[in-house]
Amino acid sequence: MSLTKPMLGLAVGGTLGLLDGLSGFLEPSLAPLMTSVIAFSLLKGLASGVVIGYFSKKVHSMLLGILVGVLIAALFSFLLILRAGMAQFLDIMLPGMLLGVIVGFATQRFGEREDEAAAANSVSVSPGQLQK
User: Which residue has the higher pLDDT, 126 or 31?
Assistant: First the structure.
């Protein structure tokens, strides 16, 4: 099964975002906020993954894919920091930037461009096969 770059970004970003949110259970002070921690981490991962995937579809450079992945994930992480407070800066920003590195790498390395995916799914039929 092959995935386009935005779909791969969505899958990897969502998975990593969910794992990031679930890691909040390791911090007892977050117990009353776990629903929002998981939800916002998942949304951050999904949104970052899709945006990084679309960028990777347009630009085919591993270095640029990873750098833009870090920047996009850092931007979404910063939006969460504005809601959670600056006291949580490193706890939100570092996992978010790591998510960006991993998704940027994965979409550049493993994602297929849409034209390649369409060519792989198409079936060629010769005129002789149609007459049978």
Answer: 31
